[in-house]
Design a protein that fits this description.
The protein is of the alpha+beta class and about 300 residues long. It has five helices and 15 strands. The strands form five sheets. A four-stranded mixed beta sheet has the order 13-12-10-14. The chain has a three-stranded antiparallel beta sheet with strand order 1-4-15, with no helix packed on it. It has a three-stranded mixed beta sheet with strand order 2-3-11, with helices on one face.
Length: about 300
């Protein structure tokens, strides 16, 4: 075999190997960029602030979106739901988006997009559909979305891609064995956010403004900004700290000192966990272990979400 043919064969081999590796480590989604997080264990919480610190084992690999869900992505999925009868725009009531059925819930509030100080971070209503700008505003995380809206997005995207929906939208209960998208558990969120680190922030114990959009000693952004404007963590995830808080799947509850395996939070509660801090936060409030909570119907300018997907 000539050197030229041998070199071509080597190149082809490595290209095929790269494709095989990529197919194993990336979820097939035409809409989202998903990153595979390896199984492992970590110390969840933080001494003196978020105690008791306890050992958590994540026994299965999982995929998580590399960024918060953007306005473009949200508009595309919610429009599919509108077209297929799963959601409707209430044009007579301030342009809000609601799920359909006997237990309708508000998913998104476009009225707040248009009548707030953050109007550039919005989705519009036009001719019965949601419209997002395709410039940099479209790549900002969707806000004014309830926990119900985030869970509904997961179900709608799952159905779009032929996956099994994870949520019962009447009860809000999550089937963790479903093949479709869902919100990360609080443990999955912190494990992914740490990016393999054991420090106060994903990048170390000192604040570094290159990694997060917050409102304290930070940057040129006065509010929410496009995703991927800051450095990623050790797993290649963007904006796990700052930009917007992120809905988690769990009900908020006290930690236990006991070691846990794949914890999914309390069986019931009054509010859902939010994590990550936002563009309104200071550096102390943006610690990777910091916890917060909101009721499921809460719709604000500083909460968005990202999704996870089980590895087959």
């Amino acid at each position: 075999m000539s050197n030229t043919k041998r070199n071509v064969s080597v190149v082809v081999f490595f290209l095929l190997a790269s494709v095989m590796i990529f197919s194993q480590d990336a979820a097939e989604s035409p809409l989202l960029e998903m990153v595979k997080i390896p199984a492992g264990s970590f110390q969840m919480g933080e001494k003196k602030n978020y105690e008791p610190v306890h050992n958590v084992a994540i026994t299965k690999d999982f995929f998580i979106a590399s960024t918060e869900i953007t306005n473009i992505q949200a508009a595309k999925v919610f429009n599919w739901a509108i077209e297929n009868g799963y959601a409707k725009i209430n044009g007579d009531r301030d342009y809000t988006l609601w799920s359909t059925g006997g237990d309708a819930r508000m998913l998104l509030n476009m009225y707040l997009y248009e009548h707030s100080n953050y109007e550039k971070c919005r989705i519009f209503v036009s001719k019965g559909k949601l419209v997002s700008s395709t410039n940099y505003y479209g790549f900002m995380p969707v806000i004014f979305v309830s926990w119900d809206g985030a869970a509904a997005f997961c179900n709608y995207l799952s159905m779009m891609e032929g996956r099994e929906p994870a949520y019962d939208m009447k009860t809000g209960e999550c089937n963790h064995s479903a093949t479709g998208y869902r919100l990360p558990t609080e443990a999955q969120w912190e494990y992914a956010a740490r990016g393999g680190s054991r420090t106060i922030y994903p990048w170390g114990d000192e604040w570094d403004s290159r990694y997060a959009n917050i409102g304290y000693k930070n940057d040129k952004y006065l509010s929410v900004c496009e995703v991927k404007k800051f450095l990623p963590n050790g797993y290649g995830l963007y904006d796990m700290i700052g930009n917007v808080n992120e809905w988690c799947n769990d009900w908020y509850g006290d930690y236990s000192a006991a070691s846990q395996t794949n914890p999914a939070g309390p069986d019931s509660g009054t509010a859902k966990v939010t994590r990550g801090g936002s563009w309104q936060a200071d550096s102390w409030s943006s610690r990777v272990a910091r916890r917060n909570s909101k009721v499921t119907s809460s719709i604000t300018e500083n909460i968005g979400f990202r999704v996870v997907l089980p590895v087959k």
